Structures are given as C-alpha cells and as structure tokens.
Amino acid sequence: MLCLRRGKRAKRRSELSLMRIGVLASGRGSNLQALIEAWKLGELNGELVAVGSDHEEALALKRAEEAGIPHGAFPLSRFSSRQEQEKAILTWLREQKVEILVLAGFMRVLSKEFLQDIQIPVLNIHPSLLPSFQGLHAQRQALDYGVKISGCTVHFVDEGLDSGPIIAQEAVPVLPGDTEDSLSARILEAEHRLYPEAVGWVAGGRIKRNGRIVVKL
C-alpha cells in the first residue's frame, strides 16, 4: 500500500511539476507532522523531499523516517563553527534539489550569508500576530501585555528577527485564566491548520509578492 501511494505521488509530481519542499526542525516536529499529513492527502502542492535537524535525537527526524522522507542530522558539535554547519545543511538541501525551505520549530536563526546563498523561498511560522511579540516566548509576551487576541503568522524569512513579509495569519482568543501553556496549545492548533495551507499556496504558485505586500492569487 505504501509503495502504491508513493507511485501515485511520483506520477502526480511528473504531471503537475510539484515543488520539492525541505523542512528544518529542531524538536518534536508537530508542525512537520501537519505538513506530512497534508502531503499524504495531496493538499500540499509539493513533495516533502528532505527533513534536517540540528539535533540528532529530534523527534522530527523519527517522523520523517516513518514517512519515508530523506533526513539528516547536523548537530553543531560535528562542525568547527556555525558557518561550517550551515554550509553542510545548504549543501545537503541542494543535493536533495529542495525548491522551498520550511522552518518548523527550527530553533536557530539562519545567518544572513545562508539566506543570501540559498536563493529559494524560506518560510517560517511564529506563535504571534506579527509584528507583535517577535522573538522567543511570544505567548508569554502576549499574556504579559494583556492582549485579548493572539495567534500565529506564516511569513517569508528575511535577515531580521521574525520580520519577513507576512503570508498568512490566524487569530485565536486569549481567555481569562490562560497560562503560557494553555495559550501555546491553542495557538499550536491554529499553526497546524495554517502552515500546510500557506505552504501549499507558495508551492502552488498562488502567492504574489510586491515588496512587503503578499497577495494570495
């Protein structure tokens, strides 16, 4: 059955020239799993062809293995510098012929040099309604500020911190008595809906960029 599904996906790629999607993840890979499920349903407009991580024991790598996706670990301890680590990741992504790179809980900020060299769209999802609450602990920032609405944002990655052009957003309520954990869980549910959809728009050529303005076609 699994081989049959792969055959169908391969045929569909040949017919529709589906984009080759790579993912970088550092941890449990719940957003990766949402992407895998959308891919299996034929809803991603692309093929998941590579999953990389900076942690050898990341659950994301196990999810990739179970889905039959080529995967690799690039822990910093294997390299003499951060620059050498990024070079190895970039070389591997090119070997896999990745055309879109998706960050799914990748906990390192990619360098300016990496982003300049990769020359393909790089996407990220952030647990706030950007430009509010950039950086780490966005959910805690939202609670400390007292906002009534939070959410998540899919954006193109640029050289700033969570500052790239916004592709899509989904709002979620901040409820009385929310903790960082409860708000994070509610936002994560929205991420699992929004990220595959937004990746599918980009992979399917349904996004037009004009500077910072991103329009869904």
Question: How would you describe the overall organization of this protein?
Answer:
Helix 2 packs parallel to helix 7. The protein folds into two domains: 102 residues, Formyl transferase, N-terminal domain (Rossmann fold, 3-Layer(aba) Sandwich), CATH 3.40.50.170; 93 residues, Formyl transferase, N-terminal domain (Rossmann fold), CATH 3.40.50.170. The strands form two sheets. Strands 3-2-1-4-5-6-7 form a seven-stranded mixed beta sheet, with helices on both faces. It has a two-stranded antiparallel sheet with strand order 8-9. The N terminus is likely disordered. The protein contains seven helices and nine strands. By secondary structure, the chain is α/β, with parallel strands linked by helices. It is globular and about 50 Å long. A hairpin with a 2-residue loop joins strand 8 and strand 9.
